[in-house]
Amino acid sequence: MNYLLPGNEPLERMNLIIGFTKMAAGPQIDALVEHYVNGLPAERAAVRFGIELSNFIRAQRRLEEVATNIERVKEIDWARFGYQSQKQAISCQLSDNNIWPAEVERLVDDVSKKLAYSASHRQQLCHFANRLLLEKLSRDQISNRLLGAIDALRSYV
Length: 157
What we know:
Elements: H1 11-21, H2 26-38, H3 42-48, H4 53-80, H5 99-114, H6 119-134, H7 139-154
Helix pairs in contact: 1-2, 1-4, 2-3, 5-6, 6-7
């Protein structure tokens, strides 16, 4: 399972995860940041920073391993402190109560069911949708950006 969503990861989070990998190659790190923070496709990120695609993919795998280990530690801590995950009942809790957020939540639900996304991916989509709603973008802008995030997830599921 992939825990990182290209184009939707905060820079601070990426820097912390990269720090756990012990990667030292500057261009490789820059390409990963460009891919996961700014959403540049993997092939273009590798070319932009002058690294082989195979090296970029190997770095991606390493990054996902670290992200997976971080999630496992979180699950252990949650269990230890009595938190119970509700994987089936995750709600977006979108920021506004008008009809548009309900439409966005339905889109996230439909896509999550259709592509059998994990709870983690669904939460990422919900978080992203919330950020878009808070930016006061038009419906078309929100739809386009949300569909772009969904396309990015589709390629990793």
